[in-house]
Amino acid sequence: MRRTGVASVELAGLPAVPGWKVLARRGEGASSVVWGAERVDDGALGALKVARDSAAARQAVSREAGLLARVARRWGPALLEAGPGFLVTAWTDAVALALPAAREERERLVAIVAHAVGRALEELHEAGVRHGDVKPDNVLLHAAPPRRDTPSERGATLIDLGLADDVREPARGGTPRYAAPELRERGEAGPAADLWALGMLLAEILDPDVARAADAHAAIVAWRRDGEPARWIEALLATAPGGRPSAGWVASRAARWLELAPDADASRQRRVDRVRRAYLAARAEEIDACASVSAEVPAPARTWIEESLAWRARLGDGAARGAILAPVGAFAWAQCLVRLVGPSVAAWPLPSPTVTEGRIGRLVELARERDPSSLTYQDVFGAGPVATRQRMVGSDEQVLVRLVRELARPAPAPEALDVAEDEIAAGRFGTLAVPLASALLRAGETGRAWSALRASDGPESDALRA
To answer: What's the whole-number average pLDDT of the chain?
Structure first.
């Protein structure tokens, strides 16, 4: 039987979606119309996006729904329902982003947006998805300021994945003012382009002259602003895409600056979600070509894949596919590990193919206790209990000595980099600026390195800047 979705907006006016009561029309775009909606069984409010009457429009809405299903957003509107030609996301009770007049208020708003949008981009990028249109119009501001680093208390929300796509696909458009250099010059549209756009957005919030300037980037290059939020912006606007810090780094720095209370449950869930997204991103092409999953794929990977296939079935896609998804291969497994741990995985021994799929459960177990970027080969392929890593403790002199030693290593522990950045931001241990910047440069983190050097003067710092 042929699946049917909502009726065409142009032909039928008010759309009809089973299980949902359609409310007021809220907006429209080139390929879709957005309505408010209420779920009949529990009264939950949603944003109903209905494709216009064209194959391209229906394909665009279907693509967006598929990406939302892969990401499983927590720091943005979650996917509630989808079908041929429509999708429903959770309603966001917020207002359009407005720029305050006072500098102190602007700096705080920079941090609120950097935190919430950074977390939103973090989960998109973990799933191998780019947003593609980060700009003020796509950021909503919540009435209550954030108190904790948790999705339910975020101060802003990044919306509209209409131009989002898998990072391997070419750009689908965007707003020229926020387009990164590599996007304008070479058409490269990876996650780093989202980070550049975030930097431009934050600069406009912080500095009214930038918001008014015809050439916003030229206005930023000409400024000389102090304060940590300004350093985030400069790091995000690194010319080299690979030199820009991750969205997660920006969000974490903003959370510390805002003095948000940590939430252990939210942090644990965020780490577990990262494993799920890395696995699904690494196997995205395989999953797209299959209709079912082999019984040899164990939980939790099997559950994640079955959920993905269920969403695709709702969209009426994939009925003609008959392949069965086999256990993860060596290439996809390596991609998953690189997404989670980083390039240091290249030095790990190659495991037997028969043990890789079963290690997904181990990764989830580890993620409940530790940041995946801190994992070692022994952690992943060992069988012992999961050990947590404590932050450095001791006298100031003891902590300083440990940090200097760790930063001198070819690949310092991520925790050491975080602690060093915290200390420098707090105005302590200024002598760490050069060794920290050197360690970050070795890791290709030129934006973060430049930010660290803002706290240091002298010939060594000048040499690194050059």
So the answer is: 88
CB-hemisphere CA count at 13 Å for 408? 6
3-state SS class at 128: coil
Q: What are phi and psi of 112, to 5 degrees?
A: -65, -45
What is the identity of the amino acid at 365?
E
- The hierarchical CATH code for the domain 95-257 is 1.10.510.10
DSSP code string of 156-216: EEE---TT-EETTSPP----GGG--HHHHHH---SHHHHHHHHHHHHHHHH-HHHHH-SSH
Residue 268's H or E segment, with its range, is: helix 264-282
- Maximum distance among all alpha carbons in the chain? 74
Q: Where does 9-90 sit in CATH, by number?
A: 3.30.200.20
Contacts of 135 (CB under 8 A, 6+ apart): 175, 177, 178, 197, 201
Q: How confident is the model at residue 437 (pLDDT cuts 50, 70, 90)?
A: confident
What does the alpha-carbon distance between residue 466 and residue 452 come to, in Å, rounded to a whole number?
A: 14
Continuous segment of H or E residues that includes residue 21: strand 20-28
Q: What is the pLDDT of residues 289-332, one digit of tens each?
A: 998 999 999 999 999 999 999 999 999 875 556 789 999 988 89
DSSP state, residue 48: E
Which residue type sits at 314? R
Look up residue 135 and give its DSSP letter.
S
